[in-house]
Amino acid sequence: MYFIGCDLGSTTGKVVLLESLGDAVDSCRIVSWALEPSGFSPEETADLAINRACEQAGISRDQVAGFCCTGYGREHVSAIPYNVSEISCHGKSASFLLPSARTIIDVGGQDVKVIALGKTGKVVDFAMNDKCAAGTGKFFEAMARTLRCTVEELGEMSLQSVAPVSISSTCSVFAESEVISHINKGVDRCEIAGGIHESIARRLMAMVNRVGLTEDVVLTGGCAKNKGLRVALEKMIKVELTEIPCDPQINGALGAALYARDAYDGEK
């Protein structure tokens, strides 16, 4: 039996197709997943991503027993009335993939979330920055444009940093001015990249302190693929991040698929 979870973010729509193999909580497997750039409407983005995920699995949408949405666009998909908050979905997925997970740091395109989980996997506290682009994927993109490189190159350059420069501003606009100033002074790009990543890690650390740090700690979201961010964050929090056994960008969508399965079982 198949279930679909949609995470409709500000920059990307993610869909996970989950197969339930039995009644046990852990008797599920990810069959396929798809990413789509967020379009003019959440409905369109969800439709494209769902079709891609189904095509990859070789099934039709009619074979899907349940759907659930999360993310910014979760309430704007008429075909999928069931929706759950991002915080709940990220917690459910991380706990499913890694029962030992206690702290989730999710760095997305336009927001950052730090989520604390209890021993049973339930969300016990969280902090969220969705009012400012600082520390998000948009921030990385702006800094990469200023240094005339890709986001991937920005992360790689930061790993070569020996003496990262100080980027004191948490505002994207002012931080960009600082970066330009360093460029004009002839500072090596690797040291600037290192400073950018340290600045972001420092901001994330402040959010972690509000929630409390308990191991195991997992990093999710599209920015979790940035090796420079992982290294800078590990140095800042003085804890080794634990890998989750799937693409970190689909964590929220997987949680939504798990909620779709739970809803179906509840209806039965």
What can you tell me about this protein's structure?
By secondary structure, the chain is of the alpha/beta class. The protein folds into two domains: about 1-95 and about 250-265, Nucleotidyltransferase, domain 5 (2-Layer Sandwich), CATH 3.30.420.40; about 100-235, ATPase, nucleotide binding domain (Nucleotidyltransferase, domain 5, 2-Layer Sandwich), CATH 3.30.420.40. It contains eight helices and eight strands. The protein has helices at about 40-55, 85-95, 135-145, 150-160, 170-185, 190-210, 225-235, 250-265; strands at about 1-10, 10-20, 30-35, 65-70, 105, 110-115, 125-130, 215-220. A four-stranded mixed beta sheet has the order 3-2-1-4. A four-stranded mixed beta sheet has the order 7-6-5-8. It starts with a strand and ends with a helix.
Percentage of β-strand residues = 15-25%
- Report the principal-axis shape: globular
Mean pLDDT: 92
CATH topology of the largest domain: Nucleotidyltransferase, domain 5
Helical percentage = 40-55%
Largest sheet properties: 4 strands, mixed
Tell me the name of the CATH homologous superfamily of the largest domain: ATPase, nucleotide binding domain
Order of helices and strands: EEEHEHEEEHHHHEHH
- Total strands: the figure is 8
Structural class, judged by helices and strands?
A: alpha/beta
Distance, first to last CA: 13 Å
Question: What's the helix and strand layout?
Answer:
Elements: E1 2-8, E2 12-20, E3 28-37, H1 42-57, E4 64-70, H2 86-97, E5 103-107, E6 112-117, E7 123-129, H3 137-146, H4 151-159, H5 172-184, H6 189-211, E8 217-220, H7 227-237, H8 251-267
Parallel strand pairs: 1-4, 5-8
Antiparallel strand pairs: 1-2, 2-3, 5-6, 6-7
